[in-house]
Amino acid sequence: MSTLQSPSSTTDLEHLEEDEPSQECKDVDIEKGQLSEYHGFWIPTWSLEGVMASQKQFQARDTDILLVTPPKVGTTWLKAILFALVNRMHHPNLQEHPLLTNLPHALVPILEADMYNKKKVKDLSHASPRLLSTHMPYTLLPTSVKNSTCKIVYVYRNPKDTFVSLWHFMNRVHSTTVSLEEAFDKFCRGMSPFGPYWDHVLSCWKESIDKPARKMIFLKYEEMKEQPTTHLRRLAEFLDCPFSLEEEAKGTVNDILRLCSFDNLSNLEVNKNGRFRIPNHETTLFRQGIDHASFFRQGNTGDWVNYFTPHMTKRLDHIIEEKTYGTGFKF
Ligand code: A3P
User: Fold this and answer.
1) Predicted confidence (pLDDT) per residue in 141-168, tens digit
2) Which end of the chain is more exposed for a tag (fewer CB within 10 A), N or C?
3) Secondary structure element (H or E) that encloses residue 36, with its range
4) Domain tally for the chain?
5) Which residue's CA is minimally distant from atom 18 of ligand 1?
6) Does position 1 have pLDDT exceeding 90, yes or no?
7) Which of 67, 68, 69, 72 to mutate to test the pocket of ligand 1 (most atoms within 8 A of CB)?
8) Residue 86 lies in a domain
9) CATH number of the structural domain spanning residue 91
């Protein structure tokens, strides 16, 4: 925990070679949120170039902290928590904290979108540790990440709640009215951003089994909601910045959780009315921007019961059972 990473501290450094996705992937139209199949995963077409560029160019450092998540599992929440946790010495005054005026996504760059987008590379070399995030599954991570001893924080969530959250989000940001049934059918066939969802989770899980020495922590959204203090302490230990006795005594753990809570973040002006743009992305979505509020819907667990029919439950349960069989992993 030595140097601050701030939203305004990144600068465009250099131009990358243009990557041509056409030879390595097969494009398929999926409503407005177009996905491209790439090495067994469905990547949002707009971010494919960034995925490939980061695979080729990104140089991981052993001190990096990389948040790896499938979309809609609580990425925004964990970005807030990680930023507050790692930078807590720099921001002792919670009344003036960067999270009060910035969407968490603006504080933790997304490898494939922010650092490597349309030929621009952002420099985070001054920050240590560097706090980065990606939606790429483990198998697609840059080799330099796999070869480094950087720390990976992996978050996952009940697949049914993940799907419901995704369905709402996609319809909202693309201004579409894709039916629940249609979206569910695609989700079950693996066609979700960075999906198949279960393969995303299992690719990281398998790595943790095959290489127990790999520095990786698994956090489950539902467990974080149920026992936030336990898991925040666990995370701090994992990141080698455990809470001191003094911090424990003055309630730092709860301060961070309150700051990053759904109620607090979703009611901030910046998150109610701001718009999220990724510079240099020419898609309509990123020209218009995504409203910050779309990252904060309910923040609860178990909402799927309000949407799933018995048939949907049976279908997804069957897929999950089949895919996780023999892996030792349980959602
Ligand atoms: P719901 O749609 O179920 O409400 P991601 O950040 O990966 O896109 O995930 C979004 C999900 O996390 C949404 O779930 C969102 O409401 C929830 N979320 C956002 N901020 C949160 C917070 N501070 N605490 C708990 N959940 C949060």
Assistant:
1) 999 999 999 999 999 999 999 999 999 9
2) N
3) strand 35-38
4) 1
5) 299
6) no
7) 72
8) yes
9) 3.40.50.300
